[in-house]
Amino acid sequence: MEVGHDSEKEVIVDYAGSLFRAHKVRGSLYACPICKNALFYNEKDLIRHIVSHAMASEEAI
Ligand SMILES: [Zn+2]
Known about the structure:
single chain; alpha+beta; 1 helix; 4 strands; binds zinc ion
């Protein structure tokens, strides 16, 4: 059965009690849910990247 979604699925990453929504692609890579361009091999790098997005938007306020 065709899914037509390039084996991408949504996952919830739990980091220090904070839940982050992310996309997992090709089984082992995490894709940034914000810019959708960055790919990461582990949750730690993904979270650091998401946090940097959050901090950037706080500075803009
Ligand atoms: Zn990003």
